[in-house]
Amino acid sequence: MKLAITGATGFVGSAVLDEALEMGFAVRALTRRDQPFREGAQWVRGTLDEMPALEALCEGVDAVIHIAGLTNTPDVRAFETANVTGTANVMTAMKTAKVKRLVFVSSLSARKPELSAYGASKAAAEALVQASKLDWTIVRPPAVYGPRDDDMLELFKTAKWGVVPLPPGGATSIIYVNDLARLLLVLTRQSSKNILEPDDGREGGWAHKEMAQAIGKAVGKSSVFAPHLPASILSAAASTLKLIQGDKAKLTADRVGYMCHPNWVVRSDRKPPESLWKAQVCGEEGFAKTAAWYIQKGWL
Fold first, then answer.
1. Residue 28 pLDDT
2. CA distances from 44 to 47, 59, 89 (A)
3. What is the DSSP string of 130-198?
4. What domain count does the chain have?
5. Could you list the mean pLDDT of each consecutive 10-residue stretch along the chain, which spans 300 residues?
6. What is the CATH number of the domain that holds 55?
7. What is the pLDDT of residue 296?
8. Does residue 207 form part of some domain?
9. What is the C-alpha to C-alpha distance for residues 51 and 53, in angstroms, rounded to an integer?
10. Quick one: pLDDT at residue 169?
11. Strands of 2-6's sheet in order across
């Protein structure tokens, strides 16, 4: 099976590429810059706003997994360009190449577009996908973590000091990156128009304090201090980090908007059927694997 992947050099996309090559897919992957040779992979140089590159990416493939997008930026206007216009461009290229099957990676934040510009951009992109004549499936991952992830890295770093600062009380679902990668690849062989919300199989998700303690155990702490920080403090921290770190700041005002929502647990009626896919890595195991990788790479 010939597969096209956008975002294959990112955190989720690189895991999908690894799994795809291991499973025997022939992969064509979009990249902004030159990449080292990989058996079974063909790199296409370009971006989501370059139609010739997108058409070359889609030519002759059986399915497209669209992962590329913007998850964090100090300029919220950039979300529209990357996540909405970029998705529209991918679908236009698919139409030109006569490719029907699209697996689109969205976000749980699309359920509450009023909370963040990021979530609004993902919701708008979902609407474009649903209005298309493609054979599509939309996947809304919850918090994705695992090796190569630098978003949750700060939580692991602070946990080593015995402290994990949290947003206001609530619960969230999580998913290990390799489990998500397997699902996306399984879906390329399906034919369905639906929205799926996968997770690690933990019923009711993870209370924030439970997750903090699990991360603490993964880095060798029997317990950690996990205070809930109000939105006002998180907003002030985001403003301070913007001054100190500029565009590299992980905590932004836009992220505070959806971090403070109390329920990012996947909906049971949107979970993938177990006959199709089931998570293999539970949170405790996944956190341990992630911490070990961070340590091996000198990140932690």
1. 98
2. 9, 11, 15
3. HHSSSEEEEE---EEESTT--SSHHHHHHHHTTB--B-SS-EE-EEEHHHHHHHHHHHTT----EEE--
4. 1
5. 96 97 96 93 97 98 97 89 97 98 98 96 98 97 96 94 92 98 97 95 96 97 92 82 69 81 96 96 98 97
6. 3.40.50.720
7. 97
8. no
9. 5
10. 87
11. 41-45, 26-31, 2-6, 63-66, 101-105, 135-139, 194-196
| Residue 258 maps to a domain | no
The pLDDT assigned to 244 comes to 74
User: In terms of residue numbers, what domain contains 107?
Assistant: 2-141+176-199+267-280
Give CA–CA dist 42/166, Å, rounded: 42
Residue found under tokens 């996990």: 226
pLDDT at residue 247 in the model: 64
Residue 72 domain flag = yes
**Structure tokens that stand for 274 in this block:** 């177990």
Which residue stretches of the chain are H helix?
Answer: 11-22, 51-58, 77-79, 86-97, 117-131, 153-160, 177-187, 208-218, 231-245, 253-259, 283-296
Residue 161 is assigned to a structural domain of this protein:
no
Between CA 3 and CA 24 the distance in angstroms is: 10
